[in-house]
Amino acid sequence: MGNLLEHMGIEKERLHFSWVSSAEATKFVEVAKKVTAAVRSIEPNDKLVKKLD
Amino acid sequence: MNKRTEKIRELASNLLKDGKVDMVIGFNQGTTPMATNPDIARSPEQAEKFIWDNNCSINLANYLADRKEKIGIIAKGCDTRNIVNHIVENKISRDQLHIIGVPCTGMIDKVKIASEFDDEIIEYNEDTGSDSDSGNNFSVKTASETKELLKKDYLKANCSTCMHRNPVIYDELAADLVEEPVIEDQFADVRAIEEMDSKDKWNYFDDLLKDCIRCYACRNACPLCFCPTCFVDESDPQWVGKGQNDIDIRTFHFLRAYHCAGRCTDCGACVEACPMDINVRAFTRKLVKDSFEIYGWEAGLDTEKRPPLDTFNPNDPDEFIK
Amino acid sequence: MKVIKIDKKEWDKGIDKSREKYQLFGPVKSKNNHIFKKLENDQPLDMEYKDSVLSPKSVLFPQTEKILETTLDESKDDHHIMKRADTDYSPRAVIGISPCDAKAVQLVKLNFDTKDYRDPYWCDAYEATTFIGLAVNRPSIYDFSPSAGSGPFAEEGLDVLLVDCGNEYLAKVLTDKGEAFLGAAGFTRKEDAKHAETIITKMKKEAEDAIVSTISTDKLKDKEILDLHGAPFWDDLAFSCINCGTCTYVCPTCWCFDIQDETKGNMSIRIRNWDTCMSPLFTMHGSGHNPRAEKTQRVRQRFMHKLKYFVDKYDQGTMCIGCGRCVKHCPVNIDIREVCNTMNSYEPKSENEI
Hints:
The complex is a heterotrimer of chains A (53), B (322) and C (354). Chain B is an alpha/beta fold and 322 residues long. Chain B has helices spanning 3-17, 44-47, 77-88, 110-114, 157-160, 188-194, 198-209, 217-221, 246-259, 269-273, 281-295; strands at residues 23-29, 36-41, 71-76, 97-102, 121-125, 137-142, 146-150, 172-173.
């Protein structure tokens, strides 16, 4: 159902799901690196950022 | 008066005469063109006011949640699916209900019809059509013209992709079962949006929501929205702002759609209720499609099964998790 | 009495000229409906509009209005001080407002401008506004304004009444403010007052005769509040209500609001939003008690306020001015005309009959 965010126009690179146990430190680092790279590859986010009037 | 109206009046009066139910919920004739008013009948005389026509688009299952009486209810295909949902979610029990099912041939789109005329509509009539029992043709009058229109050209959007016209649960029927249509691509509207790029998608929904006045008619007309305190009304903590901020408006609609994931029957009551004519279904359609394509699930068909978001199955598709 | 004749060919030019002195508000088409909005720089207003789904009350009373703001940024002089928001109250003109909506403004004024308290946000906006009304030549079937204290050609609350005569508008000048606006727009061609009056009177009668929908309000004042309050018809009447806010938000006289504070980083603002008594939480007390927790109580409250409490308190007729928007847009077709007639004709059973 994370599809709904993509459907409304949030780029799919911004939302990632992963099962990582606290015992899987190496995997955690890899996932963190991948997600950071994916988000950096697209423009900074300006959607869903609420501005006060 | 068409046959469905006659039968509904007969069945409802009988239920009340025999004391089988405390009240029957149905539609009365409205006071303005193309309007119907949901009402209750507590006596056979009151049941004689019920009608059935092309404008019975509000979902009567909305009035059932948490009631304690024995209730008769006039329900079309999608309404009965919502009744099943209510039973699965413990909002009402099956033995409280006597369901008068109405095999539905679709409801009409008031906005689309109004756009055919320059002046405002002053009269609507189904009885003049040659096929008055099914309401397949009807006439609409303004101060300057009268037009005879065909229902099939003005079906509401959700009716044109409906695959469950016949009631899925009922005690009695108000008409013969109708043929279920075969729809080639019932999610064509969702696919059209999926094909857009992110920016266009964002703008599409921005444009859709620019007229929203946060009246919550969509939420209140929806049978699924029965939370004692809706997340938008919560103030401790306050999840969503209550003003007309674009982000808050968008958050309300999408989060509400999320809460209806796997439960929405596409009855269209939300669109019907909206005073600003916003296509509220645009938010929930994507989830209806995903439920169907990913989990093979359609809401409200079986009182024994629990929805996919309620259950875990090791076979649940999960390629989105890395 | 002064009447100005405005050739429709001159209309757009005059409106553009008036933009030099006034912020303009008028009916604008949005998808299938019209709404009253502040006009952008060159945006024209749609004088052919038949009715607007939302009333012009948002000109004086926006749905979300920033009223106060504070900053914690110590580099600013006024940090940590809650100050009034910087709203633009330079002269405004609302063009194309219907007579019943203008009367509604006068009724709302009774609430926001009292001898004990003056709401600065509403009142400052009101004083800055000139109301250029447009008479309704062809009333809608939902219009029942004559029996609700107004009418398609009524003048109360207007500074100018425009009457659409086909190729031109006859502009009846009602106040100095109205005259000032017409001057700023360059609409100065005087028309013979008597001649104009004859035309206007004829059109007024035609419009009023076209309205067949009426409400009876003559007995409302004499009814006892407790009798009406305890009447048996409220339960069934309220059944279909879904407690959305549609009737409240489209109504030109509904004035209830909610105040919210929102903060982000160093900034904090206090905003005023429309609120609706149809919402279950409207009367929720801090203690957790809710005197209007049941739907019937809320529906009853709405109609008692509009058709009884207001009548008693202000002695200026009902709070409903007969625009018909709630009748048109209620998703379940609850009709205030029916409710009013029911209330007006209600006779409680005497003690002996019970």
